Amino acid sequence: MMKRIYVLHFNQNNYDKPIVYNLIKNFDLVVNILRAVILPRKESYLVLELEGDEKLLDKGLSFLKKGGVRAEPIRQSVHRNEDICTSCGACTAICPTGALHIERPSMAVLFTPEKCSACGLCVNVCPPRAMEVNF
Ligand code: SF4
Ligand code: SF4
Fold first, then answer.
1. Among 16, 40, 60, 84, which is least packed by CB within 10 angstroms?
2. Could you report how far apart the first and last alpha carbons of the chain are, in Å?
3. What's the whole-model pTM score?
4. 40-84 residue pLDDT tens
């Protein structure tokens, strides 16, 4: 079983299609909606955690591509600029998923994109603006 987080980008032609229903019904995936911005007739996006058999997960992604839905792994949408991060730790207090966390005993601030829900809360609390959420 695989569990991955993707950002799905919709356009004005497919934003109203039953994508989540099809991922569950046709590919036996567990779908967890982490964030959704649906704008009628404009670009919209969903942040989904998908869990299931690896082959079925890949087939589900092919289904999305055929339908014109761009699915990007979360690490392509959320970055930490390592050059300017000062390891101050401020982001770890607000990150709801533990994607930003302090490793002990080294006290290094680690970023694990696979746990990130793309909520964007870390962007404004980061003094040097090292966190970037791009949709
Ligand atoms: S708040 Fe910004 S500078 Fe501080 S540890 Fe987090 S990413 Fe690095
Ligand atoms: S966007 Fe930032 S605060 Fe939100 S889950 Fe990801 S790393 Fe944590």
1. 40
2. 28
3. 0.83
4. 777 888 999 999 999 999 999 999 999 999 999 998 889 999 999
List Cα–Cα distances, 18 to 25, 30, 73, 105, in angstroms. Answer: 11, 15, 21, 47
- Report the separation in Å between the CA atom of 26 and the middle of ligand 2, taken as the mean of its atom positions: 30
Verify that 91 and 123 share a domain, yes or no.
Answer: yes
Residue identifier of the C-alpha nearest atom 8 of ligand 2: 95
Count CB-CB contacts under 10 A for residue 62: 12
Query: What residues are in contact with ligand 1 under a 6 Å CB criterion?
Result: 80, 85-91, 100, 109, 126-128, 130-131
- Residues with Cβ within 8 Å of 89's Cβ and at least 6 positions away in sequence, in order, are 102, 107, 109
Domain count, the chain: 2
